[in-house]
Amino acid sequence: MTGSESRLTGPVRVVGVGLLGTSIALGLRARGVDVILSDASPTNVRIAIDYGAGRSAGDADEPQLIVVCVPPDVTASVIVRELSAYPRAVVTDVASVKAPILRAVRAAGADVTRYVGSHPLAGREKGGPMSGRADLFLGRPWVVAGHPDISYQTAAAVDDLILDLGASLVEMTTEQHDSSVALTSHAPQVVSTLMARRLVSAPEAAVNLAGGGLRDVTRVASSDPGLWVQILGANAGATAEVLRGVRDDLDEVLAALSAAADAQEDDAATGAAPWRRTLAETLSGGNAGVARIPGKHGQDRRYAQLVVMVDDRPGELARLLTELGEDGVNLEDLRLEHSPGAQIGLAEIAVLPETLDTVTSALAARGWRIAG
């Protein structure tokens, strides 16, 4: 993006220089945009300025666009303040819920003809201005949640912002957005958290058996509780609807498992136990759901998995990736896991199914140990 001309014509004011705000600012600065930084913490502003994200606010500032990047519980009030302070600017925000914020801004009597909410589906495991990256949004979906009170011409500044940062613009209503993220983000956070809570009182011997499956399910459970209380509270209705469906499915599975535990020998002999069908249909439904998740370049396809044992010493993973490239292997995905109690790592690589045998043979010929 460096050196490319921006679609935006005026200064952009970024309010809140955490991860998203700083990343937006860095991406715009790479295009030569004049970025004005504001934050409740003067220290955060100074850090973001030191990282090249923009400059301090001045009394004569006339921003074309204002991007509000503050926690959800104060987003609406900050939007109202910014609309009042800068009557010529278009205002957007990046909060992960949209309908409640729009309602609150309207209820405050603010000029919603200059406000449209948006939400970039991007992030990192670390927050704060020091974690900001100019390329954070490249190729990521960025929702613009339109409403009848704002014109396409006015909202174009938000579209320009998204395109400048290399994101993929997605148009939705506020209600469509909130129901969608309830399914794809907010309910999964709760499910992951509940599963991780089971580990708190689990025996040490059991926890030591943790593998890829448990790590995958609980990965997002380490998210910031304070932030997620705000997100879940703001999108409570839509998230509860998804979780009620999960609860109903779980009740069916529990009934099937109870029946399986109580099954007698004659049930197994006849093969007529209904619980088998319930479990099979549930698991098959999960397969069908996973197949709908967009993969690499938006493709809905499954890849073959190959697990390679990698010695835990400097340069070994780099050597594996280099040799895959030398053999002409297009790596579709990569996941790393350390083997407990052993000085090796397990690199699970995903390749096209038709190349699996060739890749396996090539790696074996180079001396790599294939674990699965």
UniProtKB/TrEMBL annotation:
UniProtKB keywords: Amino-acid biosynthesis, Aromatic amino acid biosynthesis, NAD, Oxidoreductase, Tyrosine biosynthesis
Domain ACT residues, every copy: 305-372
SUPFAM superfamilies, per database record: 6-phosphogluconate dehydrogenase C-terminal domain-like (SSF48179), ACT-like (SSF55021), NAD(P)-binding Rossmann-fold domains (SSF51735)
Record domain Prephenate/arogenate dehydrogenase: where: 10-287
Entry superkingdom: Bacteria
Enzyme Commission code(s) on record: 1.3.1.12
Pfam family, one: PDH_N
Pathway as given in its UniProt record: Amino-acid biosynthesis; L-tyrosine biosynthesis; (4-hydroxyphenyl)pyruvate from prephenate (NAD(+) route): step 1/1
InterPro entries: 6-PGluconate_DH-like_C_sf (IPR008927), ACT-like_dom_sf (IPR045865), ACT_dom (IPR002912), NAD(P)-bd_dom_sf (IPR036291), PDH_C (IPR046825), PDH_N (IPR046826), Preph/Arog_dehydrog (IPR050812), Prephen_DH (IPR003099)
Catalyzed reaction equations: prephenate + NAD(+) = 3-(4-hydroxyphenyl)pyruvate + CO2 + NADH
Gene3D superfamilies for this protein: 6-phosphogluconate dehydrogenase C-terminal like domain (1.10.3660.10), NAD(P)-binding Rossmann-like Domain (3.40.50.720)
Membrane-spanning segments: none
An annotated Gene Ontology molecular function: prephenate dehydrogenase (NAD+) activity
PANTHER family registered for this protein in UniProt: PREPHENATE DEHYDROGENASE, PREPHENATE DEHYDROGENASE [NADP(+)]
Family in the record: Belongs to the prephenate/arogenate dehydrogenase family.
Protein name: Prephenate dehydrogenase
Organism, scientific name: Herbiconiux gentiana
